Amino acid sequence: MKLRWIASYGPAFVLAITLLALWELYVRAGLISATTLPMPTAIAQALFANWDIISVHTLQTLFETVIGLSVAILLGAGLAVLLDLSAWVRRAVYPLLVTSQTIPMVALAPLLVLWFGFDLGPKIIVVALYCFFPIAVACADGLMSTDPDLLKLLQSMRASRWEMLWLVRLPGAMPAFFSGLRIAATYSVTGAIFGEYVAAYQGLGIYMETSYNAHAVVLVFAAIVVTAVLSLLLFGFVSLIERIALPWQQEAQARFRLK
C-alpha cells in the first residue's frame, strides 16, 4: 500500500519541493524583490503568525463553499434526472444550460449583490453557479450511457421507468457523477472567494483584498496557500466518498493498472 502511494504521489511531491526550492533560491539571489514575490519560507512564517485571523476567514469561506456546493449537487443531479426522463425537456433545457456558461460571472456577481444584498445569499449562489454545470452535465451523460442490455432485461421483467432509474441508471451514472463532482469541488472555493471579492464582510476573498490594499503581498500569498489547501482537501474528500460508495469502481481501476 505504501509503495503504491509513493508511486502515485511521489513524483508530484518531488516536483513541488523542487519548484519551491527554485522559487526560494530565485528570490534569495535578488533576481526579484521579496516584496513583489515573497519567498516560500516567508509565506509560511506569515501564515503561522497570522493564523488566528486567517482561520476565521477560512471558516467563513469554507462555510459558503460547503453550502453552495451542496445546493449545486441537489440542483445538478435533479436536473440531470429530469433531462434523462424527458427528451423534450432535454432538447429545450440543455442548450440553455450550455448558454448559461457564457455569461461572465464578473458581470453577474454585482447584480446578485444588488438583488440579494450583502448577506450569505450571493456568495452561495455564486458557488452554486460555478459548480452546477459540471455536475449536471456529467450526471446527465452518465445516465445516458446506461448499458442498453440491462434496460432491455428490466423491460422484459416489466419494470417501470422509476424502477429502471433507481436500479440501473442511477448506479451506472455514479462514476460520471463523481467525476463532475470532483471538478466542481475544485471550482467551489474559487467561486466563494470571487463572491467575497464583490461584497463581503469576512472570508478569504476580502482578506486577500484588504491585504493587497495594505501592500502586504506576503499575506495575499498566505491566503492563496490556504485556498489551494482547501481545494485539495475538498477534492480528496470527494474521492474518499467515491471510494466508499463505489468499491467496484476502484477494483476495476486497480485491475486496469495491473494490465
From TrEMBL:
<feature type="transmembrane region" description="Helical">
    <location>
        <begin position="58"/>
        <end position="82"/>
    </location>
</feature>
<dbReference type="Pfam" id="PF00528">
    <property type="entry name" value="BPD_transp_1"/>
</dbReference>
<comment type="similarity">
    <text>Belongs to the binding-protein-dependent transport system permease family.</text>
</comment>
<feature type="transmembrane region" description="Helical">
    <location>
        <begin position="165"/>
        <end position="194"/>
    </location>
</feature>
<feature type="transmembrane region" description="Helical">
    <location>
        <begin position="94"/>
        <end position="118"/>
    </location>
</feature>
<keyword id="KW-1003">Cell membrane</keyword>
<dbReference type="GO" id="GO:0055085">
    <property type="term" value="P:transmembrane transport"/>
</dbReference>
<keyword id="KW-0472">Membrane</keyword>
<protein>
    <submittedName>
        <fullName>ABC transporter permease</fullName>
    </submittedName>
</protein>
<feature type="transmembrane region" description="Helical">
    <location>
        <begin position="214"/>
        <end position="241"/>
    </location>
</feature>
<feature type="transmembrane region" description="Helical">
    <location>
        <begin position="124"/>
        <end position="144"/>
    </location>
</feature>
<keyword id="KW-1133">Transmembrane helix</keyword>
<dbReference type="GO" id="GO:0005886">
    <property type="term" value="C:plasma membrane"/>
</dbReference>
<feature type="domain" description="ABC transmembrane type-1">
    <location>
        <begin position="58"/>
        <end position="242"/>
    </location>
</feature>
<keyword id="KW-0812">Transmembrane</keyword>
<dbReference type="InterPro" id="IPR000515">
    <property type="entry name" value="MetI-like"/>
</dbReference>
<dbReference type="InterPro" id="IPR035906">
    <property type="entry name" value="MetI-like_sf"/>
</dbReference>
<keyword id="KW-0813">Transport</keyword>
